[in-house]
Design a protein that fits this description.
Structural class: alpha+beta
CATH class: Alpha Beta
Strand content: 25-35%
CATH architecture: Alpha-Beta Complex
Largest sheet: 6 strands, mixed
Number of helices: 9
Order of helices and strands: HHHEEEEEEHHEHEHHHEEEEEE
Radius of gyration: 22 Å
Helix content: 25-40%
Number of domains: 1
CATH topology: phage-related protein like fold
């Protein structure tokens, strides 16, 4: 019964979606798809979990003195360095040392997909989900890749720990936490791959306590949201984050900003029976306090 209800609901959604496209109401159809994509993008991008995106209006932007590029000037701690994440159209990474820094906005775009409306009419699943699955992976990967590249450029010297022994254990993570707070910044969130996170299952009861070890045995580690009391963001993207790397970030107000000139937006264009669609957004990510990033590469 539940299966039949879901199917009917999806067919009704698809019928309404295609009817809007057919009647020239591409904007209305795109708005439906955009809302769907935005909700999925929040789940798929670990950068959006480290820094919460905030949409800016035109009057909140600052003018650049040399170019027409949109930017946002943000106040920062004068004794720290800052930079922005370079996306398409932002120019090269710049390091700022003064009391404020600029976050430039670029463009993130998915691949362009073409489908015949006759093929879409036969779909039994929600078309919006199909559109979002195609777009979200492209856009989230671009955001995460550029964000992590910036973090790698930041985390050098004392901000990059390389313990010679051990793995996911109390000794190494104690060193990570101590190195972070030694720069007089608080601890916020950990980021690592799911594959590395599962190493915590090997922690003995003498380290985590019998109740925790028993819970891991019965329920696995997916139900856990913290390691040593620190919230953990996990990702399956081992092609972006190394399975050996653990990232530690300060809370957002000690770290940076994630601004959006435009959140993920679905664009639809129809010619005859062919429907072309893609998604794009205009993000600007800034790390206002480079002290708030620590990397640990396990052996």
């Amino acid at each position: 019964m539940n299966y039949e209800t879901t199917q009917v609901s999806a067919q009704l959604v698809n019928s309404s979606f295609l009817r809007k496209v057919e009647n020239g109401q591409e904007k209305e159809a795109a708005a439906e798809g955009s809302a769907f994509i935005r909700s999925k993008l929040r789940e798929a991008s670990f950068a959006r979990q480290v820094l919460t995106p905030v949409v800016l209006s035109d009057d909140e932007l600052d003018r650049d003195e040399y170019t027409d590029l949109p930017k946002k000037i943000v106040e920062k701690e004068p004794d720290s360095y800052a930079t922005f994440v370079p996306f398409k159209g932002t120019g090269d990474r710049t390091w700022f040392s003064g009391p404020r820094y600029a976050i430039y906005f670029g463009k993130v775009e998915s691949q362009r997909f073409n489908k015949s409306k006759f093929e879409l009419m036969s779909y039994q699943n929600d078309i919006r989900k199909i559109l979002s699955d195609n777009s979200v992976k492209d856009m989230a990967n671009e955001e995460d890749t550029r964000f992590l590249q910036t973090c790698i450029a930041i985390a050098t010297g004392a901000q990059h720990l390389t313990p010679g022994t051990g793995g996911v254990d109390a000794t190494n993570f104690t060193s990570l936490f101590q190195a972070h707070v030694a720069r007089q910044v608080p601890i916020g969130k950990l980021v690592m791959t799911k594959e590395l996170y599962y190493e915590a299952l090997k922690l003995p009861a003498t380290s985590v306590g019998d109740p925790v070890a028993s819970r891991h045995y019965d329920d696995g580690i997916e139900t856990e949201e913290k390691l040593w009391g620190i919230p953990v963001i996990t990702t399956i993207k081992n092609d972006i984050i190394s399975n050996k790397d653990v990232w530690l970030f300060s809370p957002e107000n000690y770290l940076g900003n994630f601004f959006l000139l435009q959140d993920a937006t679905l664009f639809i264009k129809q010619e005859a029976d062919m429907i072309e669609f893609w998604s794009y957004s205009a993000p600007g990510i800034g790390v206002g306090n480079t002290k708030g990033v620590t990397r640990m590469t396990l052996p």
